[in-house]
Design goal:
It is built from ten helices and 13 strands. Strands 1-7-6-4-5 form a five-stranded mixed sheet, with helices on both faces. Strands 8-13-12-11 form a four-stranded mixed sheet, sandwiched between helices. α4 links the parallel β4 and β5. α3 packs across α4 and α7 packs across α8. The protein is globular, with a radius of gyration of 19 Å. Bound molecules: oxa(dethia)-CoA.
Length: about 325
Amino acid sequence: MFNVELIGTGSCIPEKVVTNDDLAKIVDTSDEWITSRTGIKERRISTGETTTELAVGAARSALESARISAEDLDLIIVATLTPDDYLPSTACQVQKHIGADNAACFDLNAACTGFIYGLTVASQFIRTGMYKTALVIGAEELSKITDWTDRTTCVLFADGAGAAVLQRGEQQGIISEIIGSDGNKGDCLTCPALPPRNYFIRDDSTKESRSEYVYMNGREVYKFAVTVMPECILKTLEGTGISLSDIDHIIPHQANLRIIDAAAKKLNLDASKFYVNLPRFGNTSGASIPIALDEMAKANRFKKGDLIILVGFGGGLTYGAMLIKWTMGE
Ligand code: UT7
């Protein structure tokens, strides 16, 4: 088996900042409620940027940081639940825009855990020797599936994209990973696609209008999250010889500050180990972890040898975590 290293990160976010006070003008909410229940103060919302454009921006930024050209890529995976099109996939559209002519491309939907799923899949291709270099992108435009009259969800979700480049390397950068799902709890977080509709369906009931928006049972997802986050973190350490106290940074899915604090408490860890940027970006689903990763990398928060855990949960329901050693730098 080959070693896999993370060699670059990138991100791209829409320009428009929407504050809690802005939302209080649209729905019956307040800065006080949103801040105290979630930790979110503001978020970025598309004013026309598409999921593909955000993904392309994140891809370019990651390639620049990895100092490789798009033609070096063997694989592009885009984790998204909000593609612009059923066809072609977002990954194929990114390929076209950046000129990654040698890459195999596909999208993957594991909701907010999508980026960890994407890194996990890409890592397997590199470990086995099938591919040498892969680009994994988490790109979302949740604002287009958000019901802007529903205060229980519209205050949470936001738009953005982040990316990372993985490559076969000398050192073991990706140390371990776990992914999993619990489809039995899928009803907690849903967004319907098209119902059956074709010439042969005469039954009018199938033509009934269905919601196009995200529905969430927040309390159930909350309960799931505070259980699986600590479990995932501990599972990534199993069999590695690395203990929790050796970990330098944890980058959690940015959904709710209370969930992150609860996970820290369960693990008896100082909350400062967990990187938090959700006050500025809200919940960008599959983009939240790579945006945070890129933000930390660009701010030189990592030093060579640092041990980092990425951990997420989300629709599906899905969960996952990855243990990485930072191999870049002096
Ligand atoms: O990445 C996807 C994963 N999703 C998540 O991680 C979400 C996990 N869940 C959560 O983060 C929390 O459950 C929420 C932030 C969504 C909600 O917080 P909560 O403490 O569970 O609040 P709640 O749903 O129990 O609602 C409490 C009250 C309700 O009013 P009543 O019934 O007590 O009178 C809601 O109607 O707060 C009301 N409420 C609001 N009030 C003002 C709900 N949304 C709002 C709002 N502004 N935006």
